[in-house]
Structures are given as C-alpha cells and as structure tokens.
Amino acid sequence: xxxxxxxxxxxxxxxxxxxxxxxxxxxxxxxxxxxxxxxxxxxxxxxxxxxxxxxxxxxxxxxxxxxxxxxxxxxxxxxxxxxxxxxxxxxxxxxxxxxxxxxxxxxxxxxxxxxxxxxxxxxxxxxxxxxxxxxxxxxxxxxxxxxxxxxxxxxxxxxxxxxxxxxxxxxxxxxxxxxxxxxxxxxxxxxxxxxxxxxxxxxxxxxxxxxxxxxxxxxxxxxxxxxxx
Length: 229
What we know:
By secondary structure, this protein is α/β, with parallel strands linked by helices. It contains nine helices and eight strands.
C-alpha cells in the first residue's frame, strides 16, 4: 500500500476509541461510593457506559438516587476524576502503532471528544501527544457536541481538510451519527464500550473494525473520498 492509500486526515473519539479510560472512571466512582459508605463496584459494571458520559456512569454508581440528585454530583465526579486522570487508563493495544503508521503515511490526526476540553488537554502530555495531535475539540469547546456535526466540521476546518477527506473513528452511535451528518466517512470501533443492546450494524458506519491492529493496513480505511482537501 502507498501512503496515499491512507486518509488525508483522521479524527478520533477519545474514551473507548484511543484510550481505555474505564479504570480511571471506576476508581472515581468507587472513591465517591466509599465516601458515602458504599462498597466498591467491579470494573465490568461501569465499563459499558463509559462512552455515554458522566451522568450515565453516575446512574450506574448510584442507582438508588433520583436523577436530580445524581445530576448534582457531576461537578464532584469531574473533580475526583481530574485528580485521578491517567493513573490507571491505558491506550488500547495497537493504538500507538496505528498512530505511528498514519503519521508515517502523512496523515494528519486529531481528537473530537465529548469529554470536557480541559480534561482531555490533561491527557495529551501524559501520552506525549501535545505536538502530534493536530486538533482537539472537547464537549464544551463549541455550542454543540456530538451527535451534532459541528465539532467534526470545526475540527476539519482547523486542520484545513474537507470533511469528506477525513475519516472519523468512534465507539458510540453518536460518533457515527455526527460523522454522517458532517459528510465524513466513519469507522465504528468495536473494541470500545457498548451496552449489550447496542447494535453497531444499525449505526450505518462505513466500516466496522474489531481491533486497532486492523487499522495498520490502508485497506481497512473507508475507500471513498480519500482525496486530500
């Protein structure tokens, strides 16, 4: 495969796509539960909802609370998470080699996440990505967040790429919905976080990918719209 076979630009979701952040989040939830005299939860109980955000994780951590009570815990959840961020999280196997392969092919890559931008920014230096990541859009960077297409559209603008020349990779349905609305080819990352009832086939991604290692090969990327912007 030649370098031109890879996309001109790739945008990634963060949690559940590049980063296995579930261990940080279960540590956060369990610290909050411990402070309230509750026993620790197993990682497997929280892991499926990590990509759904803090409110979904709090619903698992505190199912006995009313929704309004859990909503009031979001600032505490984010504060505790900030104090723990990166302590237990790890890249999924194959991600670093995939990024190196893209870089060697001349592909520009960045991150579009619903995680608050200030938290995502804390992760970049831990991974040595400050210079490598060409753009970072968080869930509070813009007036809209995924599944709205605006974050993907703005990210493409910032790296001077047409949306159709980018590929978006994410592990949640809203990632694929946002990409489709932005006119951006997409890959559903099946190695990420999903509820038992989720059906990635119904998301209508251009490609489904079981493992990051598959993305070491140019042929695994959507073939359409590979031309540069």
